[in-house]
Structures are given as C-alpha cells and as structure tokens.
C-alpha cells in the first residue's frame, strides 16, 4: 500500500488538512515582512550636504544658503553628495549661472541633512549610508539573503534528519531572538550580523512550511494547498506596507515585523509532524497516532475504530511495510541529489529555475520607487496583484501543467522588465501597469516553483532538494539588490540584467519533467 492510498482512506483533504494549512499560514505571513523589509528599513530619503554656519549667512534664508553652497542638477534640484569649497555668492543674483569649474566642487565634508517628512529614521540616516557608503546600504539586503542562503542548506538537511515540525519551531524561536536583537543594534556591524542570523533562521520557515502541509494532502488538492499557502505571502506583503506606513522609525519597525513570529510559535503547537517523514524514518507508532487523529477529525470513524481494534491487521501493518521499504536506503545528503542521472538533471535545472525566479522577483520588489507610484502604495499594490496571479496560476497548473506554467511565468516576468527599459519615463501610467503585470508574473512563478519542486523530489530527499534549490534562489536574492549599483555603469544595465536572467532561466524549465496528477515519489527509485 502506498501512502497516497492510505491518505484516501482516512481523508486526503478534510478538516484535519484544512486545520494544518491554516495553522501554517501564520508563519508564512511573517516571511515577506522580513524578506522585503529592506525597502523601508534602508530607505534613503532626499538629502544634501550639511553646511556649517558662517557669519556671512546671518541674513540669508535656508534656501539661499543652499543655493550658494551646493551645486544644482540640470533639473534644478540640489546635488546629494557634493558642495562648493567656498560659498558662491554670485548665484544669489542669477542661480542659472552654475560654475563649470569642477575644482571648486568637493564631496560632503560635514555629513548630511535628511528630509524627515517621510521617515523618522532609517539605517541610511542613522549611519549615513549614502553617497560613497551607498554600497553598504544595499549590502544590508545582501547580508540578509546570505543568511537565508546558509539557512537553506542547514535547515534543508536538519528537517530531513530531525523532522519538519521540530526544525520549524527552532527556526521561529531563533527568528524572534535575532529579530529583536536587530532592533537593538547600536552599530552597522551589529545590524549586519543580526540581520544575517535572522535570515538563517527565517530560511527554515520558508523551507519547511509548504512541504509540511503538502505531505498531509492528497494528489487532487496539492495545487490548491500550495496556492492557498502562497496567498498568505501576499497578505504579508500588504501588511508590510501598512505596518511600514504606521511605523516610520526603523528600530520599532523591526520590532513590529518580528512580533508576529510569537503567534506563529503558538499556532505551531497543534500542527502534527509529517506522517510521510515519520514513516520514511521508521517512526511507525507516531505516524500511527497522527493518522488516527486525521481519520477521526475527517470523519473516517469506521477506519479509526477498525485500526484501533485490529492494529496489527490494518494500519500498523501497512505502516511497517511502508517503513521497511524506505529505511534500508540509509542516510541521504545533498550529494544524493547528484548521484543518479535523472535526479542530477532535475537538480541542475531546478536550481537554474529557482535562481531566475528569485533574482527577478527581488529585483522588482526592491525597486518600489522606479515605477512612478508612492512606495507604500507600490508595496500594497504589488501585494494585491499577487493574489489574482496565484489564482490564475492555480488554474493553469491544473489545466496546462506545471512545466509550461512555470516556464512562461518567468519568461513573461523578464519581458515585462525589458519593456520598461524601452518605455520612456514620462509615460508614468504605462510603466506602472507594465511593472504591476511583471510583478504578477514573478509572483506566479514563485508560487509555481515551490509546488513544482516539492513534487519533483522524493520524500527521503524532499527537504534536501528544497534546501538546495532554496540555497540557489537565495544567491539570486542576495545578488539582486547589488545589481542596482550597476546603474553607475549604464542607467538601464540593472533592468537588462534582470530581463536576460529571467528569460534564460525560464527557458531551462522546459527541460524538467511534468508532475501534474503524478504520485509524490517516496524513494529515489521512484524518480529513476
């Protein structure tokens, strides 16, 4: 008897599975509130060089002081990173006569003055991460995703070794600890370290939530459960916009987005361990207990009663047979993903797909001010557009299949990014519409890749597979914010990079096998 057949007997999608999925949705909401927090945590408000007070400025207004102290851009705005070596009083008579002699222009010497109308404080204003230090500001997101990358490897292995639920709980507890430590940071170095460790911890949540829910659901409802769980990411996206709008001080913003992890820890108390994992690791008694609970809650009382009266004849016997089929293979590691031909191809191709999905998704998500909308509104709209994108993806994955849906979602994301390179910046509304469409496609691609990958790998290697692909994805996430620095080479180079990577990686998805209506593989032999 296969586990899928056993699930059908006890109820493959009843009250028990719905309860588990909704319990796991709260941890899912926490994720975007940290993964996309950089948009607000490290926001850089308008700024200019600080001008030291001089006796000659006594009778001048602040606007006049700036006029004679700071060079102007062609559009009339003051430069953010430069000042005159000496006040240029002649500009009071004609401000259009900007000096052409660069020798009288220097970098800011006395710090910066920031516009606090939108943000009370961010890490940019706290530690002057602007101008020459701009790279450190973008690196904050990279440090976080480096942590997520490391966490993917660590929790991928540990959750296959010690169980899904225990590692999910550990991940949430560590997220609370390091998230709160981040909020108390007194230096940039402390923030960089604690954000990296927060990324390591949250990686476990990202990695485990979907497979833990999926392993309790039958074939017919796998897509639905995957999309349902993913929708709560979008809800977290919208909540982040509202929380950031209400909390404009970066210390308290970190506290506000970390606090909900405590509720997630409480909700996890009632979530059972994956029966598939328990059986695969020979823990038959625990699997037996959870399956009986599932049968009772789903109303399969005849099955539950017969299993309790004749355990050796029915359920326990079937579980021992399944466990015996799975345990002789020994222990598995990440190396196992590349030992056999079919698994090797799946691992290489899925790694490329995950990199493209994450790289393009975070490239769009961290450019809230580049599409002509208010950044809070952009964040909220980007969250809203993800929900219909997920619903459409749900229909397509069930009708058209996983493979074409995955491939075209990434390719269309890249094409939307590319389109905005061509559309003039004066066409604000059109650029916003194309950006929102691209964001929808990118989220559809992310929704599909979690479900698709969890169906590609066997139970004995599923978390290792998810850990490896998540590792590659987080490399994409870590590189995405740094690509913005390429605008110093050519203004459109970041968008060209995002577009090219998305189209290439989307094409690789056509090399993966289709998994629509296919039993979840239990062992490597099922794949090969």
TrEMBL record:
Keywords: Cell membrane, Ion transport, Membrane, Transmembrane, Transmembrane helix, Transport
GO molecular function, one term: prostaglandin transmembrane transporter activity
Gene3D superfamilies: MFS general substrate transporter like domains
Compartments it resides in: Apical cell membrane; Basolateral cell membrane
Transmembrane segments annotated in the record for this chain: 139-159, 166-186, 192-212, 224-246, 252-271, 346-364, 376-396, 408-427
Major place of residence: membrane
Cross-referenced CDD domains: MFS_SLC22A7_OAT2
Domain Major facilitator superfamily (MFS) profile: 87-516
Record keyword Transmembrane present: yes
Keyword Chaperone: no
Species in which this protein is naturally found: Pterocles burchelli
Signal sequence interval, chain numbering: none
Topology relative to the membrane: Multi-pass membrane protein
Designated name of the protein: Solute carrier family 22 member 7
InterPro entries in the cross-refs: MFS_dom (IPR020846), MFS_sugar_transport-like (IPR005828), MFS_trans_sf (IPR036259)
Catalytic activity: 2-oxoglutarate(in) = 2-oxoglutarate(out); GMP(in) = GMP(out); orotate(out) + L-glutamate(in) = orotate(in) + L-glutamate(out); estrone 3-sulfate(out) = estrone 3-sulfate(in)
One GO BP: monoatomic ion transport
PANTHER family recorded: SOLUTE CARRIER FAMILY 22 MEMBER
This protein's GO CC annotations: apical plasma membrane; basolateral plasma membrane
Family to which the UniProt record says this protein belongs: Belongs to the major facilitator (TC 2.A.1) superfamily. Organic cation transporter (TC 2.A.1.19) family.
PROSITE patterns: MFS
């Amino acid at each position: 008897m296969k586990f899928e057949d056993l699930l059908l007997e006890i109820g493959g999608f009843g009250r028990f599975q719905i309860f588990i999925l909704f319990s796991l949705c709260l941890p899912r909401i926490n994720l975007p509130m940290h993964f996309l927090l950089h948009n607000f945590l490290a926001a850089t408000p308008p700024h200019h060089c600080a001008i030291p007070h001089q006796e000659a400025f006594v009778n001048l207004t602040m606007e006049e002081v700036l006029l004679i102290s700071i060079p102007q851009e062609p559009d009339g705005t003051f430069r953010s990173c430069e000042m005159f070596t000496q006040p240029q009083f002649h500009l009071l008579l004609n401000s259009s006569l900007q000096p052409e002699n660069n020798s009288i222009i220097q970098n800011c010497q006395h710090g910066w003055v920031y516009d606090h109308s939108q943000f009370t404080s961010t890490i940019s204003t706290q530690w002057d991460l602007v101008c020459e230090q701009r790279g450190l500001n973008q690196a904050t997101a990279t440090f976080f995703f480096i942590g997520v990358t490391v966490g993917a490897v660590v929790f991928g292995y540990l959750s296959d070794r010690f169980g899904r639920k225990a590692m999910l709980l550990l991940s949430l507890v560590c997220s609370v600890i390091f998230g709160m430590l981040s909020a108390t940071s007194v230096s940039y170095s402390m923030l960089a370290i604690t954000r990296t460790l927060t990324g390591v911890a949250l990686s476990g949540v990202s990695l485990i939530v979907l497979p833990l829910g999926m392993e309790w659901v039958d074939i017919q409802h796998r897509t639905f459960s995957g999309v349902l769980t993913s929708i709560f990411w979008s809800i977290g996206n919208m909540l982040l916009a509202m929380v950031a709008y209400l909390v404009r001080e970066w210390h308290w913003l970190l506290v506000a987005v970390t606090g909900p992890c405590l509720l997630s820890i409480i909700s996890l108390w009632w979530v059972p361990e994956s029966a598939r994992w328990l059986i695969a690791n020979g823990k038959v008694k625990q699997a037996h207990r959870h399956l009986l609970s599932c049968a009772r809650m789903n109303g399969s009382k005849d099955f539950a009663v017969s299993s309790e009266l004749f355990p050796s004849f029915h359920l326990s016997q079937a579980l021992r047979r399944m466990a015996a089929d799975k345990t002789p293979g020994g222990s598995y590691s990440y190396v196992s993903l590349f030992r056999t031909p079919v698994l090797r191809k799946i691992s290489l191709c899925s790694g490329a797909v995950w990199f493209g999905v994450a790289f393009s998704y975070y490239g769009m998500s961290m450019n809230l001010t580049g599409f002509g909308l208010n950044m809070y509104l952009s964040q909220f709209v980007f969250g809203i557009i993800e929900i219909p994108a997920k619903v459409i993806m749900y229909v397509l994955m069930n009708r058209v299949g996983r493979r074409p849906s995955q491939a075209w979602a990434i390719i269309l994301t890249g094409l939307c990014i590319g389109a905005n390179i061509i559309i003039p910046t004066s066409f604000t509304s059109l650029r916003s519409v194309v950006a929102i469409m691209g964001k929808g496609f990118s989220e559809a691609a992310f929704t599909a890749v979690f479900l698709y990958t969890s169906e590609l790998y066997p139970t004995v290697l599923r978390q290792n597979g998810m850990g490896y692909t998540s590792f590659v994805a987080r490399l994409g996430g870590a590189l995405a914010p740094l690509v913005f620095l390429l605008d110093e080479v050519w203004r459109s180079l970041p968008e060209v990079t995002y577009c090219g990577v998305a189209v290439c990686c989307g094409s690789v998805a056509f090399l993966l096998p289709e998994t629509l209506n296919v039993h979840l593989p239990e062992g490597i032999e099922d794949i090969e």
